[in-house]
Amino acid sequence: MPKTLSAASLRPRDPIERAAALLAVMLLGAACSQLGSESTSASSAARGGTARAAPFRADDEGFVGLEVCQGCHRVETEHWSDTIHAEVFLKNPRTALERRTCEACHGPGARHLADPSDRSAIVAFTREADRLPEQQNAVCLQCHADGARLHWPGSAHDGEALACSDCHNPMSRLSTTGLLREKDVNTTCFACHPTQRTDFRKRSHMPLFEGKLSCVDCHQPHGSSTDPLLRAGSTFELCTSCHADKRGPFLWEHAPVTEGCTSCHLPHGSNRDSLLVTSPPFLCQQCHAQIGVANHPIELQTPGNLATGIDGNRDPRFIGRGCVTCHSQIHGSNHPSGARFHR
To answer: Which of 65, 14, 71 shows the shortest CA–CA distance to 46?
Structure first.
């Protein structure tokens, strides 16, 4: 019969055995503690925490490769994998630079791995980075220097030291197009242009919030030959690309129309009809306040604008309280008798 082991039989019987057993327990506890620490570190890395980088081998230029970057930057890799950059760099790189994947934009990673605390060892695209906005933009312009970016140098946004990463987020797909920082282009623009956002909320406004147009339908944010970053040479050319009935040519032209639509209209929104700068007749009288034939229109500007009119009788020409009551074709007329834009 085999001998049955009991707790008493397993208990050390002399001081030497007791000391040996205590040492064994201490060594076992230390091993378990080390194992638990490694397990915690591994789970932290799996959740996106920064783990100690594995040994790497860099080439002559200091590039370490995509796998080394992914070893520490798990969360960034997960978000970046859905972007157009990942689609191109991983599946169809066009140049040797694009084959570098992460290091195509952030630069060689060898110095960064050698000393992660050195902020100058890698190119970071944030306002807290050591690189100036023009240095950050130079990285983007390596691939995006043509097309709409031809007018970027010297443009309004370039003059304000705006970085590409102020509007775009190349590491995550938050918008449907353009890798923008916000869900759409309008929300991205309003982050710096709150006045225009207020204008679009006024009673008479361009249908931006209704989804019929966006900021980039009229403006080229990457640069333009015009001062307000227009997509045309003038406001007249831009506005008449949609409002073709105001384009002409007309037999009788109204000079302010061809000079620019913003002489009379606010481009984003107004609390007056038709996005007007001010209401008629005051808008018209900014230019037509001189005494004309039979004291017209100066007669309408003063007594005809009073509640009682002249001697208690309101001038019948002023019943509509606006010059366009009679001058209805104010943008121009092709009628032989339309010199005064009556029809």
So the answer is: 71
How many contiguous H segments (helices) and E segments (strands) does the chain have? 16, 4
**CB contact at 8 A, 142 and 123:** no
Distances (CA, A) of 8 to 5, 12, 317: 8, 9, 120
Across 286-318, b (16+ Cβ under 10 Å) vs e yields eebeeeeeeeebebbbebbbeeeeeeeebeeeb
Look at residue 276 and give its three-state secondary structure.
strand
Q: What is the pLDDT of residues 245-292, one digit of tens each?
A: 999 899 999 999 988 999 999 999 999 999 999 988 788 878 876 655
How far apart are alpha carbons 343 and 334 in whole angstroms? Answer: 8
Q: Residue 322 burial by CB count (10 A; 0-12/13-18/19+): exposed, middle or buried?
A: middle
User: How far apart are alpha carbons 241 and 258 in whole angstroms?
Assistant: 14
Dist CA 23 CA 114 (whole Å) = 39
Task: Return d(Cα 133, Cα 158) in angstroms, integer.
Answer: 9
Which contiguous run of DSSP H or E holds residue 205? Answer: strand 204-205
Q: What is the pLDDT of residues 95-112, one digit of tens each?
A: 999 999 999 999 999 999
- Write phi, then psi, for 219 (nearest 5 degrees): -115, 150
Q: Are 76 and 40 in contact (CB under 8 A)?
A: no
Question: Would you say 200 and 172 are in contact if contact means Cβ atoms under 8 Å apart?
Answer: no
CA distance 16 to 20: 6
The phi-psi region of residue 243 (left if phi > 0; otherwise alpha if psi is between -120 and 50; otherwise beta) is: beta
Backbone angles phi, psi at 285, to 5 degrees: -75, -10
User: Nearest CA to 305 among 292, 294, 320, 321?
Assistant: 321
The pTM assigned to this predicted structure is: 0.73
> Is-contact 234 260, C-beta < 8 A?
yes
